[in-house]
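The instructor's notes for this session suggest beginning with a concrete chain rather than abstract definitions. Hand out the sequence below and ask the class to guess, before any prediction is shown, which regions might be ordered.
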Amino acid sequence: MERYEIVKDIGSGNFGVARLVRDKLTRELFAVKFIERGQKIDEHVQREIMNHRSLKHSNIVQFKEVLLTPTHLAIVMEYAAGGELFGRICNAGRFSENEARFFFQQLISGVSYCHSMQICHRDLKLENTLLDGSTAPRVKICDFGYSKSLLQSQPKSTVGTPAYIAPEVLSKKQYDGKIADVWSCGVTLFVMIAGAYPFEDPDDPKNFRKTINRILAVHYSIPDHVQVSIECRHLLSQIFVENPEKRITIAGIKSHPWFLKNLPMELMEGGSWQSNDVNIPSQSTEEVLSIIQEARKSVPYPNTVTHLIEGNMDLDDLDAEVEDVETSGDFA
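After discussion, reveal the predicted structure:
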């Protein structure tokens, strides 16, 4: 981490903390997710890193490298200055159909690429859809912690966010991760247009059991005050289909009349995002796996974790704290 200087805190969660950093040489900004070494470096973290680093697409947050600090595993990624799409919809209440289509087209472009690389995301939602800082914001899919490489096996585990989860995932049987992703994309589209989740009971939105029952029954309706075109309603009806074998595919969405309207040239088949550039990672697979394995080892001095991440402790302070711990006999 010597190359980077910490700028500010940009998020936190069960994983740890995310910080904005600046490359001291190039002055370029990056987002870094810090995950505490030890038990938190589980299979989800490894899957997130290995799947994410294999993807290179303009609608996916670009993975840069993974580093090890004395206390944390640090995942360095492209910085999406526009924040979450969730925040944008909260501020707006809901989007016009044209604006929703603008973001949905990009989302589908990124998801289509993931699927072409045999990776299903399994936690697509507004919170995992970031925006860059441009005037016409570019969608950036992030957080591949629940992603699954289909080169290994079909997914079976029930993962994801309840409001976005497909009915077949709830059955706890093997399911097609790509088709489950389609359902989550449909929920994202619905929320952008209606300003509400499709399967939450409007009178009891926090009732998880009701949400699950409504998902299983595919019980949803567009609010009366929301004007939605026939074409958009048709697309949603093709996405929200209980039987995954009868649900529209990503390819079907990409050929749907509503999706094709005002489709940017770069998102068309053969567009500029489909470059011939090969994603050549700065680190080898062996090196990354070695770093992850090392990160699984517990930190001997956990009290220093917060100080180091917040950047308010230098090495002299660390040495002094370690000496205090050793002389106190707390770690005998």
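Then share the key points. The longest strand covers residues 4-13. The longest helix spans residues 97-116.
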